[in-house]
Design a protein that fits this description.
Elements (H helix, E strand, L loop, with lengths): L1 E2 L2 E2 L2 H19 L3 E5 L4 E5 H24 L7
Antiparallel strand pairs: 1-2, 3-4
Helix pairs in contact: 1-2
Length: about 80
């Protein structure tokens, strides 16, 4: 598949579709929710909770992907 003369990989297209869907889902949920964090209970807009969850998930995914991509050293 090409976009403006450049080849676009299927993985990139899938990522873009998921990113747009996630942003749309976050923007559509604006009500307030109560979240219990072990001891304190806080009331926040749902979009902020979803955004934090998305960012933490992305960071964990990047961390795991980088660990898998690194060659392992052999131990003797």
């Amino acid at each position: 598949m090409t976009v403006k003369g450049r080849a676009m990989r299927l993985r990139t297209l899938g990522f873009l579709i998921l990113a747009v869907a996630a942003i749309w889902f976050i923007a559509a949920n604006t009500g307030s929710v109560t979240v219990r964090l072990w001891i304190p209970t806080v009331t926040l807009p749902l979009w902020s909770v979803l955004t934090v969850t998305l960012v933490v998930g992305m960071l964990l995914g990047l961390y795991i992907a980088r660990r898998r991509a690194r060659p392992r050293r052999e131990r003797f």
